[in-house]
Amino acid sequence: MFAQLFLGIYFVVKGIVEHYARKPNLFLSEGTIQSISKENLPSYLKRVGEIHIFLGIFIAIMGQIEHWYNPEIWIFIMTYIIFGFACIGMIVYLNKKYSGDYILRL
Question: Where are the transmembrane segments (predicted)?
């Protein structure tokens, strides 16, 4: 439960930093900024930041659901797979759209 909560908090903070920051910092690498053109960088960071915020909230909520309600394991795992792969797919799509490569930058 606590691992999921802290991982969720990490992704929410990472998403907020990506949404507002334009310079390299602890959560945003220099390679990410260099791979995206300057005119597309704000749009890319805003969209990826939103996905990271959603992913963080999702992971934290799923941790709380697991702790308090103890759902069936197959439903729990399938929910993680569906929403997790959807978020990762959207990040890969945005990387391809803005930088031209399929490198996954979480």
Answer: 48-67, 73-95
Fill in the DSSP letter of residue 39.
T
CA atoms within 13 A on the CB side of 10: 11
Is 70 within the bounds of a domain? yes
Q: How many domains does the chain have?
A: 1
pTM beyond 0.85, yes or no: yes
Domain-embedded: residue 106 = no
Q: Which tens digit of pLDDT belongs to each residue from 3-28?
A: 999 999 999 999 999 999 878 888 88
How far is the C-alpha of 36 from the C-alpha of 20, rounded, in Å?
Answer: 16
Q: Using a CB cutoff of 8 Å and minimum separation of 24, what contacts does 57-62 make?
A: 57/8, 57/12, 58/8, 58/83, 58/87, 59/4, 59/7, 59/8, 59/11, 60/4, 60/5, 60/7, 60/8, 60/9, 60/12, 61/8, 62/4
Question: Is-contact 54 87, C-beta < 8 A?
Answer: yes
Check if the beta carbon of residue 12 is closer than 8 Å to that of residue 52: yes
